User: Which sequence fits this backbone?
């Protein structure tokens, strides 16, 4: 069902692009600064993770000030936790680093409102399809024994939320964007703890290039 929804979204985008007379296409990518908000943040010292995103976009002019820019992007998100454990009160603290990588195929559907010819604000919904989850657990208090890495399929589990930001055109073909995505769906809904709830939070700094 989730795969059918994803294909339906892509088909809808292709129809809109095909019907537009003023169409432009390009590639974009950049850095992610991601975290989660919810029960994890309340119970642990959760830190943001620096990663990346890369994808393609189209640009459909709707009026002199408004444009529609659907995108498809691979985005590596997630979070980082450092914590210590003791088996008994008299034993030294064992330190761990725990990193979770949430790798998504995201489909932002952004409206762009131009305040100036080279400056716009962006806003719109985003659908995300979880490709896989990678967890890396490392003992940092003693001799390294390597990373304990686990990879689990995401089964295209859907995330959704709102993306807002701004874009500046450096040249006719090159632009930079700073966007923020706030997820509304509970990414921990399949957790062994029934009441656990967490939401994605991602800052993205992107560079885009119009190919044609």
Assistant:
């Amino acid at each position: 069902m989730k795969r059918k929804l994803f294909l339906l979204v892509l088909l809808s985008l292709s129809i809109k692009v095909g019907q537009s007379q003023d169409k432009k296409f390009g590639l974009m990518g950049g850095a992610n600064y991601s975290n989660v908000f919810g029960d994890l943040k309340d119970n642990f010292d959760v830190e943001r993770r620096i990663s990346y995103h890369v994808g393609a976009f189209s640009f459909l002019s709707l009026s002199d000030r408004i444009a529609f820019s659907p995108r498809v992007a691979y985005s590596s998100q997630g979070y980082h936790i450092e914590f210590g454990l003791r088996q008994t009160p008299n034993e030294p603290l064992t330190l761990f680093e725990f990193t979770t990588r949430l790798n998504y195929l995201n489909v932002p559907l952004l409206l762009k409102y131009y305040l100036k010819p080279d400056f716009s604000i962006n806003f719109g919904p985003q659908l995300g399809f979880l490709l896989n989850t990678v967890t890396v657990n490392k003992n940092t208090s003693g001799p390294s024994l390597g990373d304990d890495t686990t990879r689990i399929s995401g089964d295209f589990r859907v995330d959704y939320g709102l993306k807002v930001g701004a874009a500046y055109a450096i040249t006719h073909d090159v632009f930079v964007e700073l966007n923020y995505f706030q997820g509304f769906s509970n990414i921990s809904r399949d957790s062994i703890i029934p009441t656990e709830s967490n939401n994605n939070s991602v800052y993205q700094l992107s560079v885009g290039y119009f190919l044609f």
